[in-house]
Amino acid sequence: MSEGEKIQFNGNLALLRVCAIVYIVNVLNFVFNMSFMAGHGGFFSSLWSALTNSSFEDLLATVGLLIVSGIGLPVLLGVLVFVVLLALGVFAIVKNNVMVLKILAVLLLIWVFASVFIIIPIHVLMADAVTKVDVQNFINMVFNVNVVVAVAAFFVASKKHDESGAAAAEEPFNLGLFRLCAIFFIVSGLNSLAHFVCTQSPLFQFAFFGVVNLVVGVFSLAKENPAVLIAGSLMMFVKILLNWLNFIRISGLDPYMVGSLVSHAVFNTSTVIAIAVFFIKPEWVKSCLQKMKG
Length: 294
Prior knowledge:
By secondary structure, the protein is mainly α. The chain is built from 15 helices and no strands. The model is unreliable at 1-7 and 159-170 (pLDDT under 50).
């Protein structure tokens, strides 16, 4: 990035990058999950087998069958949508483009609004009953950590920085990124607690980590203490590890399912935020690591 581009961007660069990365990993997470589904069973397994093992003539016949059956066009449109979303996320982070970031945020908010007030109610009406899955989906949409990121996107350029960087020097840490991470912990904690209470989940892990995330978020936000967020992010990594061990204990070492679990953990908003916490006050984190080594 040239000096002219640095002067033109008057905003929180770290916050912009974190928000853009969240959009990118969510798109990649969906793509990887669909890929694992394709190789694991049902219609997608047959389609995947046709694409990977068939001859060129059989592949053309399969594509023709998809077009005639009417499935090909929706699949193509879906692929194009995710390619466009991925491209927009990459463009936002490469060009530091706040406008593109806000467009992605608006699209995400529209999707959440439509899910809560249109998609989920229609599914309930068609099923004539409220299932546990419906309750889980509703909780995930109401206490949605991605909504926190979408709202944060509108504050990326809300504070003007002068060319000398004096505004950044006055702050002991990145306040915008700090607030995003703290509110993320609060919403994540409320999500886990709501799951535990409303779905009567037997996993007390939901309650434990829900309380931990909620306390971490509220305390750090009240005291403006980034060290508490770092402790919370380490607990988040512990939670991911426990999820892996618990899944392997129940389902075994199915390579498809383990691969899906790993991709979900890597390409996940929680993982991005847990890493971003260490960039709230990078110099302080660096000095702490140097003291530990010494």
